[in-house]
């Protein structure tokens, strides 16, 4: 996280903090009031996800008050740069610790999962289960396939699902993450597989990083099935 991004987040939150104290009831009647509350709520959630739980709300409010009131700032720019750097360092240390702990937990999960009946582990480390068998053709690396999928974390939380959206997606077999490239070529049209993907691989066909946090879960599970094969070397328009 860059310093200007942190500064912007703090400034937005401080606008809310400066307008009221913790024991004052805030009116949320007008569109402007509701939008203001929404900004504060969203930024608060963002800061919480960043692990910044050690901010001093009174100091934040004082900073915005000084800026709006055009008062002399209480700290020199050099001091602020140093403070932001220290905050960034603490955030990185927290993330590194979370990542290390989650990696260990994920490794243990895959080791235990690989011992279960019906789970196959390939040479690359991909684990899969065949949930439904079929006799359709198998995709080739040059094919485009129509896929339905549901992605979950190892704790069962769904983070992406074409099934929930009610719309499958077209994917070039050779244009997705390694776990999917391998898994799709194992499947026959009409079969349903459950793939266990290591988080050291990129995460998904269309999932954004903000929706999937590998520091909190080291592997993800994908239930997916191929419903159609389209011989093609050109990626579909929805992936360009």
3D structure, described in words:
The chain has helices spanning about 5-20, 30-50, 55-70, 75-115, 160-165, 180-185, and strands at about 120, 125-130, 145-155, 160, 170, 190-200, 220-230. By secondary structure, it is an alpha+beta fold. The protein folds into two domains: about 5-75, no CATH class; about 110-240, Chitinase A, domain 3 (Roll). Strands 1, 2, 3, 4, 5, 6 and 7 form a seven-stranded antiparallel beta sheet that branches. About 20% of the residues are buried.
Distance between the termini: 27 Å
Rg on CA atoms, Å: 24 Å
Find the structural class using helix and strand composition.
alpha+beta
Shape: elongated
Fraction of residues in β-strands: 15-25%
Helix-residue proportion = 40-55%
Order of helices and strands: HHHHEEEEHEHEE
Secondary structure tally: strands: 7
Number of helices: 6
CATH architecture of the largest domain: Roll
Q: What does the oligomeric state look like here? A: single chain
The average pLDDT is 75
Low-confidence stretches: 10-22, 202-218, 233-240
